[in-house]
Amino acid sequence: MKSIDNYGEIFSPAFGPAAPGSEAVTLPFIDDALLVTPNNTIPDISAIKSLGEPLYSLKIGCIGAAVCEMRLWSAQQELPAGLIKADLRRLINLWPQALVEAVSRGKQLAAWLHENQFCGVCGDKLETSPLVPARRCAACGFAAFPRISPVCIVLVTRNDEVLLARSPHFTPDIYSVLAGFVESGESVEACVHREVEEEVGIKIQNLRWFGSQSWPFPHSLMLGFLADYAAGTLVPQAEEIEDAQWFRRDNLPALPRPWTIAYRMIQSWLDQESH
Ligand SMILES: [Zn+2]
Question: How far is the CA of 167 from the centre of ligand 1 (A)?
Fold first, then answer.
């Protein structure tokens, strides 16, 4: 087992039956919770021996040359001595990107396996395909794939001000950029324009790509854009937006945590402004 400090490589997803070797990184999950040591490290194989045979044992990708596997036990399984369930939102900030991505994939595949035990069409038992992430029904041919939910997230600026808002379910005092789920049948670009207009009542222009982030709570893919204000007055959407304001860089409210794409977008705007 490599130490966590050595996970500097890139994570690339793959899928197939597990074939443990000396270079394998094994991620143990109970339900969709990753087990870690109290020091927030991935446990050695010996630490998970007492769990017995897992429900599923799958190859989920590679971190550099190291094959990455997940083992999944049911929610009823007791925690092995000396291990805890990971607080993943916090660990995202502490772990190297490649390990975060591997764990993010493992968590989402664990939820997918748990939620797709029976066919949604005919009710028969689903089986995992050997080489692609699909749960297939032999009786009717239905296949269930891991769910990814695209979310548009957009940083809107007006001269030297940035638009930030807060939703009632945010941590108190935190303001962030606007975001919303892409609807079925909708383009990502149309979603950005619609969400901004729905949530704060303004029109935007000059949409630019910023970047993306997998957000495994539970299966979002954040698609980040930058945009300029075009027209209108801020009118927060009832129940969705508690407050929305234009902020100057010397008067910013409390922001989301640094490992979120929202924070990176705001920070990139701050960096530009300071030049
Ligand atoms: Zn079926």
Answer: 40
Taking the C-alpha atoms of residue 110 and residue 114, their distance in angstroms, rounded to an integer, is: 6
Distance (angstroms) between ligand 1 centre and the Cα of 148 equals 22
Q: How many structural domains comprise the chain?
A: 2
Host domain of residue 207: 149-274
Q: How many angstroms is it from 135 CA to the middle of ligand 1? A: 10
- For residue 139, CA distances in Å to 20, 119, 121, 168, 263 come to 32, 9, 10, 46, 47
Answer yes or no: do 270 and 153 share one domain.
Answer: yes
In a shared domain, residues 77 and 155: no
**CA 143 to ligand 1 center in whole angstroms:** 8
pLDDT mean by block of 10 residues, the chain; 275 residues = 55 88 85 94 91 94 91 93 92 88 95 95 96 96 97 97 96 96 98 98 98 93 98 96 96 92 96 70
With respect to residue 132, please indicate whether it lies within any of the assigned structural domains. Answer: no
